[in-house]
Write a structure and sequence with these properties.
By secondary structure, this protein is of the alpha+beta class. The chain has 15 helices and 20 strands. The strands form three sheets. Strands 4, 5, 6, 12, 13, 14, 15, 16, 17 and 18 form a ten-stranded mixed β-sheet that branches. Strands 1, 2, 8, 9, 10, 11, 19 and 20 form an eight-stranded mixed β-sheet that branches. It comes from Arthrobacter mangrovi.
Length: 497
């Protein structure tokens, strides 16, 4: 349902969720089960949930589990391949899977086929140096229980069986290498966000679509006042909330700055845009069934790792390649060119200048990408699909990603490729900055928010969380038996067998 307040009116609620993406809807769905009597209102600027950063056409990756993303396992100086980050991300993805399985088994979000589908995850490289690296990565990962089913091959015929489009037309003398995990998935986070929002609305939450939060300020009574604009009527109203979560994607930084909490000082944002090539040939789409990730270009941000990617959007199979990086000062696809300059404050100016000085390779990469012609874009695709017919691919614009800039005592500022949870000292407001791995780790990140912001209540919630997430509190990689049982159960409920 959509709640509309008359201009100037005020209402008191327990929880305000700003943004209708996967983060806010996950947090709201958790709270509706942990504390069903609390009043919750969600405010989304667009016409429905999941249309901005969570939308599959705007999302650079739709199921990050560290199975194939090479940026999570960079080689160390001695040539070894550390696995800790990949293991950590995969652990988090298993928490999300368990939460989704719980929501499905309880009948809260309908059929899992609407938002998750089985899909192999594959890494693919060429040349001696990259092939040697991928083999070392394979050897390191297969020793971890979470990755024990990973496969590796340099055989052209076997790789052609895995991904025929990638191998057809390729030089038979070229050294190539691929690793694959058959048990990967593709997730439509836009659809999932709308399902979770629907569950919230059916259980008493107010879903306010077409409502933009203009300001967040601390009231004298310690609560938070939200100034909310109804986009249809232009009217504004005030909402008083005991707790606020800012899950507004690229719009989160501005609102956290306006809230004035000291914990947000020193943070800035660097927006990165992108484009994809999307196939329009159904016969080509039908012949590729995998997420195939390669090595990033020098200076490229992690979410710009090239991939030839099968996706299921609104139940329909599609195929895209990219992303091609770009730059826009917008913090949201639906945002303003003033987003970046208006985010500059005295407290984050030095970190932002330090990042600009130390990341010239990224600037060079983005300029090169912006100037890249369509033939050059097709040439990049041809590295993954040698027989590509360029006319059968359309160029689409992806969503904005705002990378976190934060203070650093040594350099003045660092560009952080990841997610950052910012929480006030009293736990009354929290927000999420950053991008990858993002959506795939929504459930554990929102549980982290609950733990930080509601420490007293959290102790009472733990038994309920354990019921929702059987592996809650456990490290599956350190408990292969539990990992096997939980994987089998979630695969069954999510119909991934």
């Amino acid at each position: 349902m959509t709640a509309i307040n008359p201009s100037g009116s005020s209402k008191n609620i327990d929880v305000a969720l700003i943004g209708g993406g996967i983060m806010s809807t996950t947090l709201g769905s958790l709270l509706k089960q942990l504390q069903p009597t609390w009043s919750i209102s969600l405010y989304e600027n667009l016409a429905q949930a999941g249309l901005e950063s969570s939308d599959p056409w705007n999302n650079a990756g739709t199921g990050h589990a560290a199975l194939c993303e090479l940026n999570y396992t960079p080689a160390a100086a001695d040539g070894s391949v550390p696995t800790a980050k990949a293991v950590g991300i995969n652990e988090q993805f298993h928490v999300s899977r368990q939460f989704w399985a719980h929501m499905v088994s309880e009948g809260h979000i309908g059929s899992p086929k609407d938002f998750i589908n089985p899909l192999p995850h594959m890494s693919f490289v060429w040349g001696d140096a990259h092939s040697d690296y991928l083999k070392r990565r394979y050897e390191a990962l297969r020793a971890e229980p979470l990755f024990e089913k990973i496969e590796y091959s340099e055989d052209h015929a076997e790789l052609a069986d895995w991904v025929p489009l990638v191998m057809e037309g390729r030089d038979p003398g070229q050294r190539v290498a691929g690793s694959r995990v058959v048990g990967g998935t593709d997730v439509d986070f836009g659809t999932l966000s709308r399902k979770l929002a629907g569950y919230m609305g059916a259980n008493g939450a107010d879903l306010n679509y077409g409502h933009k939060v203009l300001n967040v300020s601390r009231a004298s009574n310690g609560r938070w006042d939200l100034k909310v604009k109804n986009n249809s009527t232009g009217e504004t109203s005030t909402v008083s909330a005991r707790f606020v979560f800012v899950g507004a994607g690229g719009g989160a930084l501005h609102l956290l700055q306006r809230a004035g909490i000291p914990e947000a000082k020193g943070f800035g944002g660097f927006p990165v845009s992108g484009q994809f090539l999307r196939s329009t040939d159904e016969s080509v789409i039908a012949r590729h069934n995998a997420k195939v990730y390669g090595q990033a270009s020098v200076g490229a941000p992690p979410m710009s790792v090239p991939h030839l990617d099968t996706r299921f959007v609104d139940g329909k199979r599609s195929l895209l390649f990219g992303p091609y990086g770009g730059f826009s000062p917008n913090f949201l696809k639906s945002g303003s060119f003033l987003d970046l300059p208006l985010s500059v404050r005295t407290h984050n100016l030095i970190p932002m200048l330090a990042v600009a000085k130390d990341n010239m390779s990224l600037v060079k990469y983005l300029v090169t990408e912006v100037l890249k012609s369509r033939p050059k874009k097709i040439a990049a695709l041809r590295d993954f699909y040698p027989d590509v017919v360029g006319d059968a691919w359309e160029l689409i614009t992806a969503g904005q990603r705002v990378q976190v800039i934060k203070k650093d005592p040594k350099s003045g500022g660092v560009l952080q490729f990841g997610t950052e949870v910012i929480t006030s000292a009293d736990g009354s407001i929290s927000g999420l900055l950053g991008a990858s791995p993002g959506a795939s780790t929504a459930a554990p990140i929102m549980i982290q928010v609950l733990q930080r912001c509601f420490p007293t209540e959290f102790k009472n919630w733990e038994p309920k969380l354990k019921g929702m997430i059987p592996g809650f509190g456990a490290k599956l990689n350190e408990n292969p038996s539990l990992l096997s049982d939980i994987t089998a159960d979630t695969d069954r409920v999510l119909e991934l067998g």
